Amino acid sequence: MAVNTSRMDEEQQSVPKRKTILRLLKYLLAYKKRILLVLCIMAGTISISMITPLLMEKAINDYVAMGDRAGLLRLGGGAVILFCLFLAGTKARMYIMADISNQILVTIRNQLFDHIQTLSFRFFDSRPTGKILARLIGDVNSLKDVLTDSVTQLIPDLVTVVCVAVIMLVKNYRLAMAALLTLPILVTGMFLIETTAHRLWQAYRKKTSNLSACIHEDLSGIRVIQSFAAEKETQKVFYQLTDAHRKAFVDAVVVADGFGPVVEITWGLGGFLLYFIGIRIMGVEAVGIGTFLAFSTYIAMFWSPIRNLSNFYNKLTTNISAAERIFEIMDTEADIADAPDAEILPAIKGAVEFSHVSFAYGDEPDRMILKDVNFKVKPGETIALVGPTGAGKTTIVNLISRFYEVSEGAVLIDGMDVRKVTLESLRSQLGIMTQDNFLFSGTIRDNIRYGRLDATDEEIQAAAKAVNAHEFIMEMEKGYDTVISERGAGLSIGQRQLLAFARTMVSRPGILILDEATSSIDTHTEILVQKGIDALLKGRTSFIIAHRLSTIRKADRIFVIDQGNILEEGSHEELLAMKGAYWRLYRSQFR
């Protein structure tokens, strides 16, 4: 199975930018009524900004030139009122759009998180957790300005540019053409810069993802790092990633910052051509002073939104790569999903059958982990799986849980193919206990209740007593209300394992799977918990994986797994009498 590491850039499929932008805009359409209100407010503010130069022209040509103070004061009073309305409208639309954009971010993040939870183990096995976090947090946050500015900046600036251009053309087409003569230079320059900048921002996002993955891995494995005094080596790797991250950012910014100079140069050339043609060619007498001032204002009103649009375009180029990374995960199809005609699995009786089951990872189809495995388990039987590491023991129980899909054959529970039942009805009836005794941040009570969220306090305590966890819990200051971290600070490895046992027990599973579940428990604690395990196994089908053979002697049948096949099958006594692989394995442990 191909695996990406914190030092490797992620591969990313090329997607047309138009498709990504349209997909983002669909989220805005969910708020079309409020956006329509914003557009109405903007129409008012844009109208006010459009008539301001005309008011200035009228004030100079009609009132100042004629010495009409009263008319000038009336015009000034009206201008003040319009300015106040302009400020109020601007504040209102900014507030509404900020609220809309934040709600959209919540929606995108929730959709992304919900989809990630549906993906199979193969997705998580193939990439560091930090890289997933980078998309879920950093990439989603980077979309905020794009969503807000697409309405509050893009639309009004586009409307302003069009309106100003029309007004200038109507008032004096020669001056207008002179001012707009440099537009082709602007369009060409922006296109060339965007093409390069987008590729560089994609590279920057990948470096950010690598850095996030490195930090997550190092903090999660800090005990290992400090135990082996590997801080300097870890720092070296971290410094390399931060340097690559800095370099990628600088490279992208150097190119992206070219937007500003291109706009300023074309703006300056446009202003020069306006005055050169207006004064030198057309002559001052042909154009009134008020008209010249109005045109000067309109030139600023034309190029200022052009500059804003270039900044938005730059921002879009910067952050569209983040949207592409988000949608890439959203478009990743779950390897394991409910079939369209999936049925709800009834209460499990416990019969399990493997019918000609073979399994290989999708990207390594020639490397078979299991090869034509066949067996039947009766309800209530306890099956132990033993064999060397990598033999396929955990793969067998993972296929029962449908964490992976069989390559060939079928896995049946009570005669029903697990691919034809809903995942929720299947997994809610399985009790899975692994050697990874992960605990969640919260109270001990909450961690045990995670096995069944509607469990009562009495059921939680009964489960803890059954696995001999109740005694050490009550010795803690707040008992079941003691708050623990995900690393279980203050708890021994054995105590964390016992809490995981209690969590599994409270779920009341129809089929129990114990994958090296007692590997972290010392011999004394194992003796105490064995009684609880016996009670847990009673009356339900169970699969136990253990390297410690003393824990599986009571199993009804033992499967010896090696190289993806069942080599031997029988009870403890029967396998010893065969003097085969199990006998040799048993002797090696108890010699």
UniProtKB/TrEMBL annotation:
Transmembrane feature ranges: 35-56, 71-88, 176-197, 286-306
Domain ABC transporter: 352-588
Membrane topology type: Multi-pass membrane protein
PROSITE patterns named in the record: ABC_TM1F, ABC_TRANSPORTER_2
Residue span, ABC transmembrane type-1 domain: 36-318
Keyword match Transport: yes
Key words, A-Z: ATP-binding, Membrane, Nucleotide-binding, Transmembrane, Transmembrane helix, Transport
Subcellular compartments: Cell membrane
SMART domains reported for this sequence: AAA
Protein name as annotated: ABC transporter ATP-binding protein
